[in-house]
Specification:
By secondary structure, this protein is an alpha+beta fold. Helix content is 47%, strand content 12%. α8 packs antiparallel against α9 and α15 packs antiparallel against α18. The longest helix is centred in the N-terminal third of the chain and has 25 residues. The radius of gyration is 29 Å and the shape is globular.
Length: 748
């Protein structure tokens, strides 16, 4: 496996990724990634896709709360380049399939492997240790347990590229390679989850700060010809991160404008449980997450298995000096994650920005990449040692012990196996008994690594070791309750119309201005983004403080982002312009609405295609439209001309001045025109908007455009041009030191 070309590694690792997630991919698909990916990210991506498909930039999304701006919603990842590839690949389809979103996510797992492999190879490691370290990073416990969070996985994949750029800058004594850090930081941020980006900048700045002293500590005569100050590297890294903010300004400025409307959300937490984390790292099944295990089992626990190669690698480290930057990076991230004695929170709580970005649990991403890097270095140290002669049937004393442990583990009476969704999976031991599983995999991996040094066909042997590592991570990490659910995933655009009845669904579409009351969880509010309906309910971080206060004046929240509307509260129904209610046939809400004289059931026409819809739709007989009039003239006339996502247009006729009200959130970016002349928008009813219309006949138009999008686009474009110049300058720069200079070892 010596001197493999990067293209060959990329091809083989891509094939390995397909095998690793084979049950998630057609034609072998049996499960799909559940939770946030299907309930939040897919509908958001589908809304963006439909807007782009119709030639429009998605400026406004009226489907939840009082409406919100997808441009300002960083989790929509509109300006994240890999999502563009997903949209382009789906242009021939009417809808963005869930499989397309899932494929993009799994492609980032492969990308994480490749970047980590290149980072470790750039540090001078052999191919096999570098590949094992990259496997631990990309296919290990942290990645598997986070598959439902698109922004986190996508951002996590760019961590190694940032570290690699710091290594190259240290080796060349130049800031030019730091353009890669700027690019990695920008993409990590644009991927859509700022807390992961915050972990990224803490990790790379720590790495850069401890990298430079290691370089200057052991300079030889050749390297001394290039004097440097230790503090230059972290300053260069900080400037590169600052440049990344300019690259991402097209997203940051609209997001900044939107977040000014939100209440601060201090979500740091109380610190991770280090003892539980140790169990999750070292034991493959300490907490049982089998799909046959009841849902509430091990609630609040996670899966972070490091793997047998990772554990062995940590135990085999010998050259400690070269791993100081990686160790310090992991130590700092672990300190922030653990929050010992409340020290971290004591600092974070004084800043609204830090308290929203710095979250304890997500710093385990920095711990994971540090552990993967340390393990790879330990394995490299082991494989570079001079092998001892083999004896006794080709095995030494320790190998005999390992073989006996392996045989004993194989003979140990395991519980029965079960078939889950077409896959036969062992019902592995859990708790402390899972240490027997660990003993088996450690023995097998240790023996394989030892024999690799004596192999006459090292490439084939290395491939078997890599397959063994992937099989181990797959056995304990995929098709588990935290990353798998049966079936192929949601098909909201087809399922919801069928569940309502096609004719009833068309009736709802004929009134796009009407809001819908949902019987959670019959339909997720986020799913309305895919079918053209709107509800005051929702689940999204962009819940503004003004809308929250309006809701709280009418009833309580049931969580930090979701609430129900009491169907007997006329004031609440009319405030939110609710005209329809959707409820499961078997739910208590369905029965109460059927008995409520203020509602009437809308009965779908029987069709051979769908005889009995699962959901029932009721119409509120006292509904008020999402627009109205406040003024002395009771004989006003309002005609709706256009109701598009970013445009509301009306014909208004009155004999006196009055307010044309619109039940759409009062939000920066909305503008109004009265007969073509600009008009001021006023705040109305707490969270909504209105415009004062003079007497007479007028055309009134409300239109939304993100105010900062143009400026942000210009800044990002100019910064991108600058990045291209930095890339070209870096390409023209020769290596200042020979490839095998002693400095290369020092910088490890």
């Amino acid at each position: 496996m010596e001197n493999l070309k990067t293209s060959r590694v990329a091809l083989v690792s891509f094939f390995f990724t397909l095998l690793f997630f084979i049950e998630y991919i057609p034609p072998f698909r049996q499960v799909h990634i559940p939770y946030d990916l299907e309930g939040f990210h897919h509908p958001l991506f589908e809304y963006v896709f439909q807007s782009l498909r119709h030639g429009q930039l998605p400026q406004w999304d009226p489907s939840m709360y009082g409406g919100m701006s997808p441009i300002a919603n960083i989790q929509a990842a509109i300006f994240y380049p890999p999502t563009w590839l997903m949209y382009i690949a789906s242009l021939g389809s009417q809808h963005l399939s869930y499989q397309a979103v899932q494929d993009l996510l799994l492609a980032h797992v492969w990308l994480a492997f490749m970047f980590c492999y290149l980072w470790l190879r750039g540090r001078g490691l052999m191919e096999l240790p570098a590949a094992l370290g990259a496997i631990s990073f990309a296919y290990g416990g942290y990645m598997c347990t986070q598959l439902q969070h698109f922004g986190l996985v996508a951002g996590y994949a760019w961590f190694p590229l940032g570290l690699m750029s710091i290594d190259q800058a240290a080796q060349r004594y130049s800031w030019r390679p730091l353009w890669k850090l700027a690019l990695a930081s920008a993409l990590c941020l644009l991927a859509g989850y700022p807390p992961t980006w915050f972990v990224f900048i803490v990790a790379v700045l720590t790495y850069a700060s401890f990298k430079a002293p290691c370089v200057s500590a052991e300079l030889d005569a050749e390297a001394a010809q290039h004097p440097t100050k230790w503090w230059k590297l972290p300053i260069g890294a900080a400037l590169a991160i600052g440049g990344s903010l300019l690259l991402a300004m097209v997203q940051l400025l609209p997001t900044w404008e939107a977040t000014r409307l939100l209440d601060p959300e201090p979500k740091y937490g109380g610190g991770v449980d280090l003892l539980a984390l140790l169990h999750e790292l070292l034991l493959p099944n300490f907490y049982d997450f089998g799909m046959n295990v009841p849902l509430g089992t091990n609630f609040g626990r996670s899966y972070f298995y490091l793997g047998s190669a990772g554990i062995l690698g940590l135990c085999l480290i010998r050259r400690w000096r070269r791993i100081v930057p990686i160790f310090c990076m992991g130590a700092v991230c672990l300190f922030i994650a653990a929050n010992p004695f409340g020290l971290v929170w004591a600092v974070v709580q004084h800043s609204d920005l830090l308290s929203s970005l710095c979250r304890d649990w997500y710093f385990l991403a920095g711990v994971t990449i540090a552990l993967s890097g340390l393990a790879a270095h330990g394995l490299d140290d082991f494989l570079r040692r001079e092998p001892r002669p083999l004896n006794w049937m080709g095995l030494g004393p320790w190998q005999r012990i390992a073989l006996m442990v392996l045989v004993g583990g194989a003979l140990y009476p395991k519980p029965f196996t079960v078939t889950v969704h077409g896959f036969v999976r062992a019902n592995f031991l859990s708790g402390w008994s899972s240490s027997l599983n660990l003993a088996v995999v450690l023995a097998v991996m240790g023996l394989a690594l030892y024999l690799y040094r004596h192999s006459r066909v090292p490439s084939a042997h290395a491939l078997l070791i890599l397959m063994l590592a992937l099989f181990e991570y797959k056995t304990f990490g995929t098709s588990k309750r935290f990353d798998a659910a049966p079936g192929s995933g949601p098909h909201y655009s087809v399922d919801i119309p069928n569940q309502l009845g096609p004719d009833v669904y068309r009736q709802l579409l004929d009134h796009p201005e009407a809001r819908v009351l949902l019987d959670d969880p019959s339909i997720l509010p986020t799913a309305l983004r895919t079918v053209g309906l709107a509800s005051p309910q929702g689940f999204d971080p962009l819940l503004t403080s003004q809308f929250r206060r309006t809701v709280e004046s009418l009833g309580p929240f049931k969580s930090d982002r979701s609430f129900d509307v009491d169907p007997t509260n006329d004031r609440a129904l009319q405030t939110f312009a609710i005209r329809y209610a959707i409820a499961n046939k078997a739910s208590a809400l369905s029965r109460s609405l059927a008995e409520n004289p203020k509602f009437r059931a809308i009965v779908p026409a029987a069709t051979s295609a769908y005889e009995s819809p699962r959901l029932r739709v009721f119409e509120y007989l006292s509904a008020t439209p999402a627009f109205g009039w406040e003024g002395a003239d009771a004989a006003r006339k309002i005609k709706l001309l256009s109701w598009k996502p970013s445009v509301r247009e009306f014909d208004v006729e009155s004999t006196s001045e009055g307010l044309l009200t619109l039940t759409e959130e009062f939000y920066p970016g909305w503008s109004a025109q009265i007969s073509g002349a600009p008009a001021d928008i006023e705040r109305w009813n707490g969270a909504f908007q209105a415009v004062r219309v003079p007497a007479g006949a007028h055309t009134v138009k409300f239109e939304f455009h993100s105010r900062w999008l143009g400026i942000g686009s210009l800044v990002s474009l100019l910064s991108l041009v600058g990045l291209v110049f930095c890339w070209r300058a870096d390409r023209r720069m020769p290596e200042r030191l020979p490839l095998r200079s002693p400095l290369r070892n020092v910088t490890q």
